[in-house]
Design a protein that fits this description.
The complex is a heterodimer of chains A (about 270) and B (about 375). Chain A contains 5 helices and 17 strands. By secondary structure, chain A is an alpha+beta fold. By secondary structure, chain B is mainly alpha-helical. Chain B has 2 domains: about 140 residues, Cytochrome Bc1 Complex, Chain D, domain 2, CATH 1.10.760; about 160 residues, Orthogonal Bundle (Cytochrome Bc1 Complex, Chain D, domain 2), CATH 1.10.760.10. Chain B contains 14 helices and 2 strands; from the N terminus they run ααααααααααβαβααα. Chain B is globular, with a radius of gyration of 22 Å. Classes of the chains: A alpha+beta (about 270), B mainly alpha (about 375). Chain A: Keywords: Signal.
């Protein structure tokens, strides 16, 4: 992933100074609590109803876009250190659901931030942030009906795969809404019944994506950008079939997973 | 037009003080707060072992009764049009006469609804899946599937649960689970208990084979029986055992075999490929060896469950026998996935009629009548 945009450093330096002067470490000047990292969609008009994504001259409604993150870690003095998400409706200590919703539907059914259960001081010491897009094997395959929120969000159930979708993107063409396209990703080809293989080896395709993002040690006020158009780059949504239950080795699933792994679809602003 | 319901999520709820006190009463053996559920009696023939039951969902009279009510209730679908019994009709041995099922929004599914007969003994569920080890897990598919929508529960949980806060339901939930407030998890448990209770072992064949009643089968049916268990037709290799399917497990043998077979129903490219819309077990495992493999369903009550095969593409039992007799479709083309037992056989019209007559002897009239009358109650 790329370094954060340098232009942000100076204003943030100023902010850091201001914060230290006022002694405020609960909510900083941007109105954030410690450990809060907002995610912003880019290339998508989030004020529109429904949200509109522009790809070249085409416009697509983003009817649903959400993904799970898990296993947050920071690197301090060269060592990775596990941290927790703050427990909320959108986060368990180890998993978080980001869910971007069009405002005309139910504005409360959306979450565009993660909140790490850490002090601002610890974040300032961190040189990297690491997390996984996806859910751990045991959480993914446990009974979703009895799991805590957000793991019991049925729109992310993937019952044919006996698990959860890790990422869900449903779009429809603006002005031609019957033309729909979906990308649903999760672990496939899993066999959790096997007692003789370790869990990680029991899925033919685990389909988790790990992110390692650099952190500037003075700057804790950046947002993460999420680019939907990077996820679907080089996939013609007019022509390509949806990718929901198909093998990751067939198109367009193959291209989509390559995009998730190689294109910087989550990066600092 | 379907009413759009705002997506809402259901929460797992901590037990309240009253419930905790009630639980305590049950633990200490008291009956002051609520009566403990009654263990379910299977009433199986002596030669049939009990099925395995998940430890976290014991069979009780109350859970089966609640599950039966839910199974026949359209309130379980988001738009209140479809019940489990819309596709699993007791008159058809809990299968359907349509080629493929139709969901609550009118969308066609890829597959024909399986008969819910002795499902408690299944080693695997649906037509082709190697990673669903309980009815409880399977049930999440029809309830929550969105592509296509089957019952349409996703995002509509709160609306649906509210419907079960009235009428007989609070008392039924209370009796089964000690809490009159419905939850999706308890609905799934009750439906699983009811489906598990659908055991059928009282056909003419059972009278002949297990109760030594020589008059239970006709001479023609006996001829069919002998053909069925012959190396010529090979039927029994996949449809063997007391449940007429290899894919079985029970309490003496908890680790069930999960055999899946490619019958050669399709061979799209002369290399064994199935249509992209449904490639059987391959669509779950993405292992090429699983191309076109499906589970051999039970043949009990098979005369009632037409049409046949996973996509309902064969209309009658006579046509199914003709299909296997010619060694599957496109039998002359190479097909590396086709089961070695599907190699074709010669059979006269008289023998075919005998085989059909034998398959008809697997119908359990008492079972069907009992459940049809309950449906009509």
């Amino acid at each position: 992933m790329k370094m954060p945009f340098r232009m942000c450093v100076m204003p943030s330096l100023l902010l850091a100074v201001l914060v230290s002067i006022t002694g405020c470490d609960v909510v900083n000047l941007k109105g954030r609590e410690p450990g809060e990292i907002p995610f912003k969609l880019i290339g998508v008009d989030t004020g529109a109803c429904p949200m509109i994504m522009s790809i070249g001259k085409q416009r697509w409604n983003v009817d649903y876009f959400g993904f799970y993150l898990s296993k947050p870690e920071v690197r301090i003095d060269g060592k990775w250190q596990r941290v927790k998400f703050k427990q909320t409706q959108w986060q368990t200590p180890n998993e978080a659901l980001l869910k971007f919703h069009n405002k005309c539907s139910n504005p409360n059914d959306a979450n565009s931030k993660i909140v790490l259960d850490v002090s601002e001081e610890l974040l300032k010491l961190s040189t990297n942030l690491r997390f996984t897009m996806g859910l751990p094997f045991d959480v993914n395959h446990a009974n979703p009906l009895t799991q805590p929120s957000p793991l019991n969000d049925s729109s992310m159930f993937w019952s044919w795969q006996n698990g959860h979708k890790f990422l869900r993107l449903d779009v429809s063409k603006s002005g031609e809404e019957a033309r729909k396209w979906s990308y649903h990703l999760g672990s496939v080809g899993c066999n959790s019944e096997s007692a003789v293989r370790s869990p990680e080896k029991s899925c033919a395709f685990t389909n988790r994506v790990e992110f390692i993002l650099p952190m500037t040690q003075l700057d804790t006020d950046l947002d993460l950008e999420v680019s939907v158009s990077n996820i679907v780059a080089q996939v013609d949504l007019n022509e390509a079939p949806s990718c929901m239950f198909e093998s990751p080795e067939t198109e367009p699933c193959k291209k989509l997973i390559q995009n998730l792994v190689h294109r910087p679809w989550i990066k600092w602003q | 037009m379907a009413v759009k319901v705002l997506p809402q999520r259901f929460k797992t709820r901590a037990p309240n003080a009253r419930e905790m006190v009630c639980s305590l009463c049950i633990v200490v053996g008291g009956s002051a707060c609520s009566k403990a559920p009654t263990p379910y009696e299977w009433n199986l023939p002596n030669h049939i072992p009990a099925p395995t039951v998940p430890a976290d969902n014991p069979m009780t009279v109350e859970s089966v009764k609640l599950g039966e009510m839910l199974f026949f209730d359209t309130a379980l679908s988001a738009n209140n049009t479809t019940s489990c019994s819309s596709c699993h009709d007791p008159e058809k041995a809990f299968a359907e006469s349509r080629k493929v099922s139709v969901g609550a929004h009118g969308e066609e599914l890829n597959r024909n609804a399986l008969a819910l007969i002795n499902v408690a003994y299944n080693a695997s569920f649906t037509w082709a899946h190697n990673n669903l080890d309980s009815i409880e897990k399977q049930l999440l598919i029809p309830l929550f599937n969105e592509h296509p929508v089957e019952m349409g529960v996703t995002g509509n949980e709160d609306v649906i649960l509210m419907r079960f806060e009235q009428g007989d339901y609070p008392a039924l939930f209370k009796a089964a689970y000690g809490d009159e407030t419905p939850s999706v998890n308890n609905i799934v448990k009750a439906l699983a208990s009811y489906v598990r209770s659908l055991v059928s072992f009282n056909s003419a064949f059972d009278a002949y084979a297990y109760r030594q009643d020589d008059s239970a089968l006709t001479a023609q049916q006996l001829e069919g029986l002998n053909l069925f268990f012959s190396e010529r037709t090979e039927c029994f290799h996949c449809h063997g055992g007391v449940n007429f399917t290899q894919s079985s497990k029970h309490s003496f043998q908890p680790f069930g075999a999960q055999p899946f077979h490619n019958t050669g129903l399709y061979n799209e490219d002369g290399a064994g490929s199935y249509p992209k819309t449904d490639m059987g077990l391959y669509s779950v495992t993405f292992n090429k060896q699983d191309m076109g493999k499906f589970r051999a369903p039970t043949l009990r009550n098979i005369a009632l469950t037409a049409p046949y095969m996973h996509d309902g593409s064969i209309a009658t039992l006579e046509d199914v026998i003709a299909f296997y007799a010619r060694g599957g479709n496109e039998a002359q083309s190479p097909n590396p996935y086709r089961s070695p037992f599907i190699k074709g056989f010669s059979i006269s019209e008289k023998e075919k009629a005998a085989l059909v007559a034998f398959l008809q002897s697997l119908t359990d009239e008492e079972f069907v009548e009992k459940h049809v009358s309950r449906k009509n109650k």
